[in-house]
Design a protein that fits this description.
The structure is a homodimer of 312-residue chains. The first copy, chain A, is 36% helix and 23% strand. Chain A is α/β, with parallel strands linked by helices and 312 residues long. Chain A has two domains: 125 residues, ATPase, nucleotide binding domain (Nucleotidyltransferase, domain 5, 2-Layer Sandwich), CATH 3.30.420; 169 residues, 2-Layer Sandwich (Nucleotidyltransferase, domain 5), CATH 3.30.420. Chain A starts with a strand and ends with a helix.
């Protein structure tokens, strides 16, 4: 019987889940509302139902479900599966042992931080496939990161590694939402791009962005159609993000940098601008063989990576 | 017969070397001029003589010399020992295979980058002893770094990892000597401390630093005696350095941060200021068990770490 691995990606709004073959092929996938506002026991119930759906789905696909992995926001003690650090997206989540939610299921359940899962998915079967050392970042409302070192997720001493968004970018700069001054996140996240697009829309009279409320999708649409204000805003964003990535490349000298998250779907032109900026800031010796790629799995990276926790 | 390991630290001015027991005890050490201006073949000759001195020294200490390690500036392909990246301190050094210099010696010779050796020395027998994940930095004329991850030196895809000094600290900031804008090194190295001390010496009329040319030793002496201008300059330096370290702590979540290099000899008060600044910038979840220490081995860290390349 073919083996398969279940993955569950717990988000503030939705739970995404699916079955993965051991070669990384998607066998089946599903999305259900997370309903986190209904409280912890309701959420636990939803996770258990997803576990059962995955079990049934494996049976109907004639697969042997070997294990399930869960990706969750917050800090997750690995491999124990305990939520040790809070996430604003899921109230009262600290202290929960995610693995124990499934203790009566007939296979092991591992849990890890969701950004780590996304990095692992891309490293094993996505844009970082074939590399052992990679830097995986997500750019959207927040800026996240995951590090794969010597083929393993680098979780850090207290399972908190990867906080790329809260590296200093402008010493004594603008206050970020965590209270720190000058964190990268403030400058390059979705809100930063929108601020910048508004600024340039006022400046360029021919821009289609003028007078609009603006969101990231609209800005990237305009960028991909050659709008001048969008080009200036996206260019500024990519220049900053690429410099920060180049700075991490100087520190870690990875084989691959993979850019994921909502904004990475802005298209190849955006990734090209980021790449140019990385190559400008990072030492040439670190970039000669460096690959800089858009993430492959988009919204599926979380559950795919969670499934990967149990593969290999 | 007791086993011992030779270490050689090649610098632009001196070659430091010694014998280490497998428990990290110093058996013997020596320093000779490097005479790099006499050219590559002279330098190779000097390294071979040091190798012979270590062999004789082992014999006279009734030790079996099992191997020698060499720490060198520049990028070193490990474990091959080939210099693949230039260093301004040793002309024409690229392309040399350091291990092959000793090919007729009756034991293996490994070579690695000197900052990696310093990190390894501190990780195995110094301030990072007992930890598997550490960030080791040196602060002096330049800012260097080494990463120990899961008990191993993280050298990176092209053996260039650890360039802490060329992480971005002020986006679009002051041009550093490599041409990049806003690199950390410009702000916190010895020259940066001296600039800052001059500024505060003009401001504080009671300062002993007023009207002096100033060097790092003098500034730290004054700091340790409570001089107001020195306190302001050292405080500013430690605040910046600690923020940058905190930023790396957010990314890597190490167990220990070890501060070495010339400026780390500024005393416990300097390390205390750096520690406060790290704790202010890094997430609390990353610092609960984080140790921030001054390096233990000072000028001996290079050769001790080179010897460590062959231990364990």
């Amino acid at each position: 019987m073919t083996r398969c691995y279940g993955g569950i990606d717990l988000g503030g709004s939705y739970i995404k889940a699916g079955l993965l073959s051991e070669n990384g092929e998607i066998i089946e996938k599903t999305v259900v509302p997370a309903e986190v506002d209904r409280g912890t026991s309701s959420l636990i119930k939803n996770l258990r139902s997803i576990g059962k759906i995955l079990s049934e789905s494996a049976a109907s696909n004639a697969c042997e479900l070997r294990a399930i992995g869960v990706g969750s926001p917050g800090t997750i003690k690995f491999p124990e599966g305990i939520v040790t650090g809070a996430t604003p997206n899921i109230p009262n989540w600290v202290g929960i042992n995610i693995s124990e939610i499934f203790t009566d299921f007939p296979f092991p359940v591992l849990a890890d931080n969701d950004a780590n899962c996304m990095g692992l998915a891309e490293a094993m079967f996505g844009a970082g496939r074939g590399t052992a050392n990679g830097f995986y970042l997500t750019v959207g409302t927040g800026i996240g990161g995951a590090l794969i070192i010597d083929g393993h997720v680098h979780r850090g001493a207290s399972f908190c590694a990867g906080e790329f968004g809260h590296m200093v970018f402008v010493y004594n700069g603008v206050k970020c939402k965590t209270g720190r001054l000058g964190c990268l996140e403030h400058y390059v996240n979705a809100a930063g791009l929108i601020r910048s697009a508004r600024k340039y829309a006022r400046k360029y009279s021919g821009s289609v962005l003028r007078g609009h409320k603006l969101d990231v999708v609209e800005i990237f649409d305009a960028f991909n159609k050659g709008d001048s204000a969008a080009a200036a805003a996206v260019g500024e964003n990519a220049e900053m993000l690429g410099t920060a990535i180049g700075s991490v490349v100087n520190l870690l000298n990875p084989e691959v940098v993979v850019v994921g998250g909502g904004m990475s779907q802005g298209g190849a032109g955006y990734i090209d601008l980021i790449r140019s900026s990385v190559l400008k800031y990072a030492f040439e010796s670190t970039t000669l063989n460096l690959k800089i790629e858009a993430a492959k799995f988009g919204n599926d990276a979380g559950w795919i990576g969670a499934a990967c926790l149990n593969i290999g």
